[in-house]
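> forwarded from #structure-qc
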């Protein structure tokens, strides 16, 4: 959460900082701010709310800012203190010479603040960042050197941070530091960049250095120096960035979310590419580093993830247990952390994360790593913190996902889990399910076309979205492998439309939630051909008997059952096993169009951030 950016070179820094922040807005949008330096003069501009408010302030300063070629910027997702101007970054120390932007949480900031107050320091905001700025400034009074001051200060701080600092007396540098929050330094010709994430700098450079935890760096326009936690200089490890600037354009779609929903056919093709070639050939998964013998020793699987990624994990449980016959537990990372979890060297732990930067999942992974379990990470960011913790890195290559609501990354996670399940089955040498596996492979290969066929005609979904957009509450029901689809469909709806939506296993309806049903509480039911069809249908009858309006999402419905439903959305025919990957497209579109009709901010829903980097 929160995005930070830095620029040092000969160009107008404010333009580069604003452009960078616009690509980091997905990380938070409670306030934004920049600090610009010209020789020994620093100017700070801040605005509450979306970035556009800051842009409007800067418009009046266009010419004045021409000669400011160094700067740092921030976009905030509020943790300490309300989203106000006074709490907005950058924060300046009380000597008014050091300015700081920060992503993360300083856990011991209260203690530090109390000490600083005793020594005469004063504070304007409620933020932990202002405390950090003053602590670094205090060290500067001793060292008279920004690098040394940062190195001394970070040793006194607990928690997570990515920092960019500038000092009036050292107008040729930005000093950066990282611990448990992402930070990348982009390398240019006569100019350098700092950012929380690649989209902020990809239009300027494809070369970068990823800072690792506990490193501190000095970024000048012609050089970058990095130091480890013992203050020793380390070699710069330059990497080439995997994205094209193109990937962060809307390509003519009204919102990133709609564009990303429409990319899902290709996303499936990408994930399958090189792994599933023909239905009668075994899955190739070189990224999975356990050999046959080691796989045979796996006694349990634990999947840890949050939000949408957690829902993908629930589908994973269903297919891994079916094909690999290994018990699977799926748990939100935030719960996994605070339990005596049982894992050992025969446990396969699968961390799933679109961003690879979700703090809860990172902590959970670090914790279980100590138990010598094998860590497989399914992520869309092969350059992320989580990816670096992986024993087996399974990148999903969905391309950068900008909209806060995860769509194509969920699809890619599902497909990766299908692939992994079949791979485990084949490596374990099971001879059952032969036909079912071949059919599943065939369906995986056909899936891109089915998804694209569904996306070709969305009129019915739009119509239904309009009809139901004014309801305040929704229930989503399904059973079996689509139970997670109900959870994910409800999550998509609530996060972008703010409608109260809850997913239930359809069988659970009569154990409580049914009490809420009346004609103001629409029920969306997912019914696919398969063993649970009749059961879900009975649950729909029960809902109808309580006057609930029923929306059916189905791949096939018998004529006699159709009248039960007020509205019906039919997906291309597919097996129950693969249907979560098709049903979800309908649910994403429904949430999208409802949010659109309600005039909500689809790509940047309130209170959320794409990358949840605080626990
Ligand atoms: C998805 O639409 C949400 N924005 C959210 O639930 C997200 O899936 C969750 O925060 C986990 O993020 P991750 O996949 O990057 O770890």
């Amino acid at each position: 959460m929160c995005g930070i950016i830095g620029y040092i070179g000969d160009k107008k820094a404010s333009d580069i900082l604003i452009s960078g922040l616009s690509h980091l807005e997905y990380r938070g949008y409670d306030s934004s701010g920049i600090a610009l330096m010209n020789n020994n003069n620093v100017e700070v501009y801040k605005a509450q709310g979306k970035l556009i408010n800051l842009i409007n302030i800067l418009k009046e300063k266009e010419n004045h800012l021409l000669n400011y070629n160094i700067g740092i910027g921030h976009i905030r997702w509020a943790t300490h203190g309300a989203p106000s101007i006074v709490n907005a970054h950058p924060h300046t120390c009380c000597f008014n010479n050091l300015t700081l932007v920060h992503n993360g949480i300083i856990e011991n900031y209260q203690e530090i603040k109390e000490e600083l107050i005793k020594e005469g320091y004063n504070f304007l905001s409620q933020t932990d960042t202002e405390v950090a700025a003053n602590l670094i400034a205090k060290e500067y009074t001793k060292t008279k050197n920004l690098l040394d001051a940062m190195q001394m200060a970070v040793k006194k701080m607990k928690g997570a941070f990515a920092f960019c600092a500038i000092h009036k007396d050292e107008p040729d540098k930005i000093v950066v530091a990282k611990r448990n929050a992402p930070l990348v330094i982009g390398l240019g010709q006569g100019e350098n960049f700092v950012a929380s994430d690649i989209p902020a700098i990809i239009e300027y450079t494809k070369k970068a250095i990823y800072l690792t935890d506990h490193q501190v760096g000095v970024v000048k326009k012609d050089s970058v120096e990095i130091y480890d936690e013992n203050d020793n200089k380390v070699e710069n490890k330059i990497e080439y960035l995997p994205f094209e600037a193109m990937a962060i354009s809307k390509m003519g779609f009204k919102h990133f979310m709609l564009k990303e929903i429409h990319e899902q056919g290709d996303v499936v093709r990408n994930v399958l590419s090189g792994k599933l070639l023909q239905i009668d050939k075994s899955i190739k998964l070189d990224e999975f580093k356990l050999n046959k013998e080691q796989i045979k020793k796996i006694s349990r699987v634990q999947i840890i993830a949050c939000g949408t990624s957690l829902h993908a994990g629930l589908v994973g449980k269903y297919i891994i247990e079916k094909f690999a016959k290994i018990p699977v537990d799926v748990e939100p990372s935030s719960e996994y952390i605070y339990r005596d979890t049982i894992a050992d060297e025969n446990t396969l732990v699968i961390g799933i994360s679109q961003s690879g930067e979700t703090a809860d999942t990172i902590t959970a992974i670090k914790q279980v790593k100590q138990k010598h379990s094998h860590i497989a990470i399914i992520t869309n960011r092969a350059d992320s913190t989580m990816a670096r913790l992986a024993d087996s890195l399974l990148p999903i290559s969905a391309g950068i996902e900008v909209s806060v609501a995860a769509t194509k990354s969920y699809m890619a996670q599902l497909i990766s889990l299908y692939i992994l399940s079949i791979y485990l089955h084949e490596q374990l040498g099971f001879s059952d399910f032969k036909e079912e596996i071949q059919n599943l492979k065939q369906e995986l290969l056909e899936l891109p076309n089915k998804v694209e066929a569904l996306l070709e005609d969305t009129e019915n979904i739009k119509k239904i979205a309009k009809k139901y957009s004014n309801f305040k509450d929704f229930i989503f029901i399904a059973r079996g492998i689509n139970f997670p689809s109900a959870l994910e469909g409800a999550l998509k709806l609530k996060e972008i439309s703010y409608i109260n939506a809850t997913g239930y296993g359809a069988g659970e309806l009569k154990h409580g939630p049914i009490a809420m049903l009346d004609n103001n509480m629409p029920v969306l039911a997912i019914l696919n051909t398969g063993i649970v069809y009749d059961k879900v249908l009975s649950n729909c009858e029960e809902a109808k008997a309580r006057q609930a309006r029923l929306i059916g999402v189905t791949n096939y419905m018998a004529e006699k059952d159709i009248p039960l439903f007020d509205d019906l959305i039919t997906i291309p025919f597919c097996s129950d096993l693969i249907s979560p990957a098709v049903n979800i497209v309908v649910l994403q579109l429904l949430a999208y169009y409802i949010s659109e009709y309600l005039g909500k901010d689809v790509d940047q829903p309130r209170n959320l951030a794409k990358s949840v980097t605080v626990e």
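QC bot note: The CA atoms of residues 108 and 124 lie 18 Å apart. The pocket of 2-deoxy-2-amino glucitol-6-phosphate is lined by residues 306-309, 353-355, 358, 361, 404-406, 495, 608, 612 (CB under 6 Å).
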